[in-house]
Amino acid sequence: MKQQQMGTVVPLVRLLNQASFFFRAIKVSSIDELATWNKNRFSAIPEYRVTQIGRLNGMHESILYFNNQVLQTLNEIGYDYKTPVVIAGYKVKQDFTALIIGADQDGEMLPEIAEPFLHKESTKLNHITLNLRKKYYDLTANDAQAWVYPSVGNTDESYNLAVYPGLARQYLGFVGAVVISKANRSGSMHIEFCFDSDYRLDYLKGHPELKRLFKLGD
Predict the structure, then answer these.
(1) Do 145 and 163 touch, CB atoms closer than 8 A?
(2) Secondary structure of residue 94 in the 3-state scheme
(3) Which of 10, 116, 194, 209 lies in the 20 to 30 Å Cα band around 1?
């Protein structure tokens, strides 16, 4: 792998294996719109439709973003706890590697690199994080297939995953999603609907495997 040094720092690589699950939250304007959702709503959008920069993507770069914790996905998108939201689950179906953003060669966090990722997205911060990626952590699909980086709020148990353009479907398989009609900051969620693994809208009660995946209890 091409290694770019940042002083004495060399980007580390993390292996993501088939025992891993990741989640991503998708904002919804109305529950009614879910009746028209299909597989495309859970996949990367075409590059020509990417007209804003994100944490790591530039214009016309279709990067998919995930987190390894269900509820942390709400923090990552700045969920307002007022509107509906869909949280989709994905299982790693083939081992792949990711560059670790914000860590030194010993695995210790670099505050000057990690700091912009610890706050909710903004246009200003996205310019900063995108520039950091391009300067120190740029890669090709042959080097690694994704990046991992700190979560908003710097929670120890969670981290974000951003998959290289065009590769998400190859390495991550959709296993279902839950539709949250309302929630609160204590972690309580009202969930009645879900999408099964075939992208069909259904009632959650008929899908106990999704309850286990999203740790919803009985």
Answers:
(1) yes
(2) coil
(3) 116
- Which residues in the chain land under pLDDT 70? 1-10, 187, 217-218
Summarize pLDDT for 85-103 with one digit per residue, the tens: 999 999 999 999 999 998 8
Contacts of 157 (CB under 8 A, 6+ apart): 69
Q: Cα 177 vs. chain centroid, distance in angstroms?
A: 14
**Could you give the C-alpha distances from 105 to 6, 24, 72, 155, 162, in angstroms and in order?**
10, 29, 27, 21, 21
User: How many separate helices (H) and strands (E) can be counted in the chain?
Assistant: 5, 10
Query: 151: exposed, middle or buried (C-beta count within 10 Å: 0-12, 13-18, 19+)?
Result: buried
Strand ranges in the chain using DSSP code E only, listed in sequence order: 12-16, 21-27, 64-67, 85-92, 96-100, 146-150, 159-163, 172-183, 189-195, 201-203
Q: Alpha-carbon distance 127 to 5, whole Å?
A: 21
- pTM, to two decimals: 0.91
Provide CB contacts within 8 A for 26, sequence distance 6+.
41, 42, 85, 86, 87, 88
